[in-house]
Amino acid sequence: MELIEDVSRPPLVHVKGIPLIKYFAEALGPLQNFTPCPDDLLISTYPKSGTTWISEILDMIYQGGKLENCCRAPIYARVPFLEFQCPGIPSGLESLKETPAPRLIKTHLPLSLLPRSLLDQKIKVIYVARNAKDVAVSYYNFYNMAKVHPEPGTWDSFLKNFMEGKVSYGSWFQHVKEWWELTHTHPVLYLFYEDMKENPKREIKKILEFLGRSLPEEIVDIIVQHTSFKKMKENPMANYTTLPSEIMDHDVSPFMRKGITGDWKNTFTVAQNECFDDHYAEKMAGCDLKFRCSLKSQLRE
């Protein structure tokens, strides 16, 4: 895998008012002609909300819990990233053409940029939402290590940009709310990262029910074990260490960093937290979505 040009730190490009990574913005034109298969499953998240985790869980479900099948390729090859494009690497669309049905497809796109065919054909969606404070901290660290993003600047300036929707994929507030609204008209299973941390087995059973699938209890237990944060952080087929350092520099920060709920408390200052809470109350006014920013008990990894 050779990069044909320097991909480092291009400025974000706005599409319909949404800031995007430059290469991803360039991929959106061809995506408008995307024709899904009826049995495609779309995995949708705002970045840093458990995307790789839910992708690994779903691939394991599709493979009947067979670990050897889930080691056949890195997660980004097993679950193509719809809008992905980067010099020297197969695009999301190219990867999808090589993926046998039934396909798992990952996206971070807000609804305004999603190929209309996915909605028109009522393709099933699993959406995972994570509390905004942990997302912001995780996204800041990701910006630092993933060089397709612009330089993140200081934590304080990044947090302000995050609150104002001036980061790639735009506003977290808009994203989680519009996908929540879609649950009223579209087959969407809306999951919460915090619920998955608290009781992964319970959430996997919700997924199985949504998919109309069943697996023996012992296979579900294997999936829970194999998709724990500790196991995935050690797994080169899940932790993105197979990508060139020109794209993701794991010496700056590992792609899979901590995977816990409440880590934001180690980064936010008191003043930042108060400001964020005020902003959050304003942005989420009238919305019945409830997030947890900490858990009383968290599975030890």
Beta-strand content bin: 5-15%
How many beta-strand segments? 6
Summed up, the domain count is 1
**Over all CA atoms, what is the radius of gyration?**
18 Å
Main location: cytoplasm
Pfam families: Sulfotransfer_1
Keywords: Cytoplasm, Transferase
Enzyme class: transferase
Please tell me about this protein's structure.
This protein is of the alpha/beta class and 301 residues long. It has helices at 22-31, 51-62, 67-70, 75-78, 92-97, 116-120, 132-145, 155-163, 172-182, 193-198, 200-211, 217-226, 229-234, 270-283, and strands spanning 13-15, 18-20, 41-45, 104-107, 124-129, 188-192. It has a 4-stranded parallel β-sheet with strand order 4-3-5-6, with helices on both faces. Strands 1-2 form a two-stranded antiparallel sheet. Strand 1 and strand 2 (18-20) form a beta hairpin. The chain is globular and about 50 Å long. The two termini are 33 Å apart. The model has no long low-confidence stretch (mean pLDDT 90). This is Sulfotransferase. Its EC number is 2.8.2.-.
Characterize this entry briefly.
It contains 14 helices and 6 strands. It has 301 residues and is α/β, with parallel strands linked by helices.
Main attributes?
globular; 4-stranded parallel β-sheet; Rossmann fold; 6 strands; 301 residues; alpha/beta
